[in-house]
Amino acid sequence: MLRYTARRFGQLLLVMAALSVLLFGWLRSLPGGPVSALLGERGTPASRAQLTEALGLDEPLHVQYLRFLGRVAGGQFGTSTGVQPGDDALAIFLQRFPATIELATLAILLAVAVGIPLGYLAARRRGSWLDNAGVVTSLVGVAVPVFFLAFVLKYVFAVELGWLPTSGRQTAGIDATRVTGFFVLDGLLTREWDAAWDSLRHLVLPAVALASIPFAVVFRITRGAVLEVLDEDYVRTAYAKGLTDRVIRGRHVLRNAMLPVITTIGLQTGALLSGAVLTERVFAYQGVGQALAIGFERRDYAVLQVVIVAAAMVYVLVNLLVDLSYAVIDPRVRT
Amino acid sequence: MTTSRGERIDALAAAGPDVGVSLGASAWRRLRRSPVFVVGAVVIGAFVVVALLAPWLAPHDPGLRLLEGQVVRARNEIPPAQPGFPLGGDQEGRDLLSRMLLGSRQTLLVAVLATVIGLGGGLVLGTLAGAIGGWVDSAVMRVVDVLLSIPSLLLAVSIGALFAQQSRFTVILAVAIVQIPVFARLLRGSMLAQRGSDHVLAARALGVRRRAIVFRHMLPNSLGPVIVQSTLVLAIAIIDAAALSFLGLGAPDDSVPEWGQMLGKAQNVIDSHPQLAFWPAGAIIVVALGFTLVGESLRDTLDPKSRNRA
Question: Can you say whether residue A33 is alpha, beta or left, with left for phi > 0 and alpha for psi between -120 and 50 degrees?
Answer without folding.
Answer: left
